[in-house]
Amino acid sequence: MKEDRTTGVDAGELHIDGVATLERRGHRLWHGFELVADRHVVAVLGRRSWLWIFLGPGQRVLLADGTRGRIAARTKGRHIAPVVLDGRRRVVSRALPGPGGTYGINTALSGYRLVPHSPNTWRRRSKVWELRRHDLVVADLTMSPSRIVTAEAVPISVVLLAFTVMDLGIPGEEDLGLRSHGW
């Protein structure tokens, strides 16, 4: 298999194919998460906090093969974009807001669009989402429980960013003036 230049690990091991869940683990006040697929832990995540991800060092990520990384935020133009960083603090994937409450999630090799099933309202975010590559639906995601069902292999970094923006959003996305065209 080819080695992925962005992370230095085998690219074949960094995908989710099938059903995976994001399960809360640990103490009630200081908890983390595990991404579980086929009853195997694929990734262990530290405590999720809006402040740590967008203003601090980021949420820790440990993949099953021992690779470490973080879900953090970087600026991209006028946007604050959540990103997945590898162990050397290089960007593996990035999420940006789009029109109509959608998000674009890009890696070095592919691009995805996260689309809500119902429109986001002022106080409540959609609980059911679709992950699309071009116009093809490649995965369905739910928030309660946090679960993804894929139709094809999806990179783990895309799955982690999808759960992050579904839960936390992106700061200032309402003020960006992005409109849905309704075409």
Question: Could you explain how this protein is built, in words?
Answer:
With 183 residues, the chain is mostly beta strands. It has a twelve-stranded antiparallel barrel with strand order 2-3-4-5-6-7-8-9-10-11-12-13. Strand 7 and strand 8 form a beta hairpin. The chain is globular and about 35 Å long. The termini are far apart. The N terminus and C terminus are likely disordered.
Key structural traits:
183 residues; mainly beta; 12-stranded antiparallel barrel; two-stranded antiparallel sheet; 2 helices; 10% helix; disordered C terminus
Summarize the helices and strands and which ones pair or pack.
Elements: E1 15-16, E2 19-26, E3 31-37, E4 40-45, H1 50-54, E5 59-63, E6 68-76, E7 79-85, E8 91-97, E9 103-107, E10 111-116, E11 128-133, E12 136-142, E13 147-150, E14 154-155, H2 156-168
Antiparallel strand pairs: 1-14, 2-3, 2-13, 3-4, 4-5, 5-6, 6-7, 7-8, 8-9, 9-10, 10-11, 11-12, 12-13
